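In the current project phase, we have settled on a layout for protein records. A sample record is reproduced below.
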Amino acid sequence: MNFPEPLNEVSEAQEIYMRNFLVVICTYFFRRAFPLFHQCMCNALSNGDGVTEWQVSTRFKYFWARKTFMPAPFLEIAIAVIAATVLAYLARLLRQPPLVGYILAGIILGPAVLNAFSSTDLFHTLSAFGTAFLLFIVGLNLRLGLFRDIGPVAFFIGFGQMAFTWLSGFWLSKLLGFSPVESVYLGIVVAFSSTIIVVKLLSDKEQLQTLHGKLSLGILLVQDLAAIIVLVVMDGIAPAGSSSSGIAAAMANGMALAFIAFFLGFTIIPKIFRFAARSTELLFISGISWCFLLAAVSASLGFSIEIGAFLAGITLSHLPFSQELIGRVKPLRDFFLLLFFVVLGAQMLLGVSGKILFSVALFVLLVIVGKPLLTMALLGWYGYKKKTSFLTGIALAQVSEFSLIIAFLGQQIGHLTQPFVAAITLLSVTTILLSTYGITAGERMYSFFGPLLTVFERKKALQENPQPSGTPYDVILVGFHRMGHSIYSSLSSQSFSTLIVDINPTVTCYASQKGIPAMYADIGNPETLSILKGMKPKAVISTAPSFEDNLGLIQAFTSAKKPLLLATAHHIGEAIRLYSAGADYVILPHILGGEAVGALIQKSRFDRKALKAHKHRHLRDLHKRKKLVPSVKI
């Protein structure tokens, strides 16, 4: 990833002035924060010759400007990291994502403003490390079992969305007057969504285990695989031209690389890592070495290093040490993620004409409005409720990091110009920022737009499991999978008539086939709550992961003849708010888990035989659960 050339030539005097400007700011804050150390530094620089503090500051600036105080590359990295950190703090204070601070730091330090970077080769290398580690982490998170679990939904929605989005991007590009090659690239750029951004934001909101979180992850997995194929094809075009023989050779080499990686990943590598796992340090450097090895082999075969790093992650994802390895590599990922977004910010608003800005604005609308609408239409056609479709759609409303890699590779091949790639970078950064706010405020946005989204629901799907409003039930159980299954087993053993309410059609269809009363419905829908209140249950138990859904459910039932209300929360603050709203008991899974383990220890008193009996019962229950709706993970 190369920095574009600045718009105007910057003289040596201007560069020194810019560096002095930064030094004055840094020196001021340093003197305020660490006065004693600052005085010691002044004494050291004065050499005892009685110079004033201003002269010392001038000397300090002179050393900085002449790059004799420390190496220039180190200074530039230090400036980038410190500026990104300061602006991330500012973003946090303003309740904005830290990502905004990273990108803003890049804009300020880049050629558009201060032009503080001269070691472009160094930043190119760091960006290569950054994308390699990012895709290594993505590969580690893509367990091979997901290929079996995602089912036809993710493949259908993933490929359908990519195809329609590519066509939309291609024809919009043609209408705007871009060349056929540029139109193809723009279609590819808008077709993919960012796994890194979506996984990070959903995990921060603890929504990866929700239905829309799992749907988003499954669709992103399909898109990542398609992006890897595109990269393999482009790597074949680069050395051999656009001939079919070059593409065929690239595909053959790519398949050979994947075969070797998976063969070693399932034969020799597990044995090596079992030995390495005895030391966390050895495990860490072994994982990094495997990443670098495949990246180097990939580069030697004419592919990008990102493909090798991605393969390295996937081939390690099935190992029992993968989560430990992810935890060890995350600090590296976070550091290079910071630099990656600083570099992105540094490339914004450079050499972009008014026509290009207008085109970027239209493509931003296509990504943040068109992609969600298309995803909602496909999910609605498949039978999902409008809330699930909406939250999944806005989660995918950005441009992927793969798209940026494809654009930069297209520039290296000679298909794209620097201003065109700068415009794609501007499109990427803008959509990432907007989607960050969209994912963060998804529930609030749905409460506003929800009444307008009925067109994205199938009428047949709404009546898939109809329940008359007057049907009496002792208990209404919201959520059947995971914790809900254990609760249902306990209720059925006590002969309570129980209705299962779930937003996942796979779950409700399975429950109906087993003779369990089930209703496919969204408890965030006021109509659903009205139907449930008409059943006049004695108790309502919600295992739904969404705090907003639990709060709305409690508020709906407290206005009627109040049944016993049990809800679920993930934080103490959420639990207190649910109690204040009228909940009779709030389930905090991590606290209940600790209490259960404490009770188990108290009962067994560390007796191996007693604990073994619990182990066998637990194992039988786990095998039973594993057979329960195999495709329910989506």
User: Anything to note?
Assistant: The longest helix spans residues 211-240. The chain has 29 helices and six strands. The mean pLDDT is 76. Strands lie at 475-478, 498-502, 518-520, 539-542, 564-568, 585-587.
